[in-house]
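ugh ok fine here u go
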Amino acid sequence: MNLSSAPAPNPSYRLSRMVALLGATTLAAGCATVATPNPDDPWESYNRSMYTFNDTVDKAVLKPIASGYAALTPQPLQTCIHNIFNNLGDVWSAANSFLQARGHDFFNTLGRVLFNSTMGLGGCIDVASMNGSQRIHNDFGVTLGVWGFKSGPYVVLPFLGSSSVRDGAATLGTFAADVSPLTPVFEINNISARNSLLGLYAVDTRANLLEADKLVNEIALDRYSFIRDAYLQRRKAQVDSRRANASALSYTEDNLPDYSDDTDDAPTAAPAKAAQ
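structure:
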């Protein structure tokens, strides 16, 4: 048999085998039970294993791509792409503000979308923020919290990262129902264009967390606990502010709570990582 004529293995097949092997290895390594798990994290043994898997995939695939994207793409173009995806997210935020009976937030966010979609050239320019309109981050997990559903235990989802039972069910449920910030993208019939936009969304999301990721590395003694506590605190603050009918908190890349003097708490840096 002429080995030189044998077809080369498909790159996607090799990648899928690597991911499967990596997942099996990390899960096996995390089988040991944590002696005293955090009360909010009773599944800490599993969660740490899944966190390690997500982090390994991120370092091997997503982070290098995002770093290259940030280094090679002109900043104005990066900002335009990020603003367009934010504009799509604002539509979903407005819908959730409506479901939470927060009329003020609903009309403000809807106004942002209309303003940025027209004067901002389809969302490329965030004209609303330039004129003092604050972005309100909202999703169905927060809506369920406002309706009285408890958060439930903390859980790390494969590839999606930090979540809770309530938030995980909300995320998977909305995607299954095809109602999410990415719904317009999923409706594109051209498969190549659709997949390219989804990939661009993942890279843009990860690229905008590179600095926050660096901050976590510099501050955290235990990245897993740091990320978990930050996620749980942020989600609690979002739900509590809406239940109290206070102004909705807006945590953005430029408006993060400062936990730099307390290594047990953290900003929302890595929970939002696409691969953690």
